[in-house]
Amino acid sequence: MSKLTRVRTIALAMALALGIPASADIRAFNEKVKVQDYKGAAAEAAATWPTLDKSRKDIALIAREFGFSTYMAGDFAGAQTFAKFAADNEAAGPAGDLSRATSMVLYELAGHAEKHTADTRNSLLAAVRSRAALPGVDNITYLGFEAVVTHDFQYGKWADAAESAQLAATATEQAGPTFTLRNRRFRLFGEVAEYMRSYQKESYDRLDALVKAVRADVNNAPTESEAQSFVDLYWDAHAWKEAFGLHLVASRKMKSPDEAALEEAKKLQGPPTDRDVRLLGIGPDMTTCRYRVGMSNKPNYPPSAMYAGMAAVVVLRMDVDKDGRTSNHRMLAAVPERDFGTAVMRAAKQIRYFPDKPWDASCSLEHKGRVMTFQFVVRPA
């Protein structure tokens, strides 16, 4: 999402066509889809479609799969043609109704991608709403929800974004563990939109709960790879929570937590786990080894018309050597817009750590993967 700090949304290029019988005409198409070569798959679809018997029972399924690959290849008009054929040729009955609704999502998704207007957004929302009322969740409908929410954020339509993100969160929650990451991301979008709409502390509290839930997802994931998939989302949610907290304190709607309150909150969360340290950069408090940070070149933060007056947060991760010099700078999150992070990264090489009091011979500045947060007020454009 360009205006939502490009929260690294997932473009789901799933191999949907594997359900088509692998006849000689379609085998090459299936092989292209398996390796996510959608331009190749679209070319195979265009060549194969005229040769197919349009009376075969699975013709609607084939049309939709051809349409999806054509959509992923960027041929939106072609995708609409295939999707319309699929919707018009689905069988009667519950299974046909579900497939027809999915095909209509694809049709409206392609139309929105081609024109990207308020009208195409509304038509797409109606299609995904109809599909979400039926059992199950599929990847085409997920992409439809994502496109609607993206549109709402791009134009700062916060009430619309809160509604569309909530619909998407409800649908993906019902889909079970497979969609947990996507559900959490839609919940993040919803809370960001709700806060931007109302500036209420309740959104901050729910976002704080989401940060804790995603941290638990990182630690509870059965494999390291699955745990890693939640890391970007953790930092995005963390950065938005920090930004809203700063805004609420500045607006006198929330008291700034003192050091004792922060320490108590950390105790309640428990000691950091191995994954907390390795994947999230969360480490034990160094109360006897304090440091200060210097930065010779302050970043020039860009203005923002949409988020003027809000607090902005940029989170970096870097390695610090024994002399306090930093290297290997990585941006973990930047909100409310990605450009703020770009400004910080330009000045990141000038960051230097220095010992502070208390400091004794057992202390060291050296730290692999230290996390640093920048906070500032967004200037109006």
Keywords, separated by commas or semicolons:
Serine Threonine Protein Phosphatase 5, Tetratricopeptide repeat; disordered N terminus; 381 residues; two-stranded antiparallel ribbon; 3 domains; 55% helix; TolA/TonB C-terminal domain; elongated; three-stranded antiparallel beta sheet; mainly alpha
How would you portray this structure in words?
By secondary structure, the chain is mainly alpha-helical. The chain has three domains: 1-155, Serine Threonine Protein Phosphatase 5, Tetratricopeptide repeat, CATH 1.25.40.10; 164-285, no CATH class; 286-377, 2-Layer Sandwich (TolA/TonB C-terminal domain). It has 15 helices and five strands. A three-stranded antiparallel sheet has the order 3-2-5, with helices on both faces. Strands 1-4 form a two-stranded antiparallel sheet. α3 (59-72) packs parallel to α5 and α5 packs antiparallel against α6 (118-132). The longest helix has 22 residues, at 94-115. It starts with 26 loop residues before the first helix and ends with a strand. The relative contact order is 0.08.
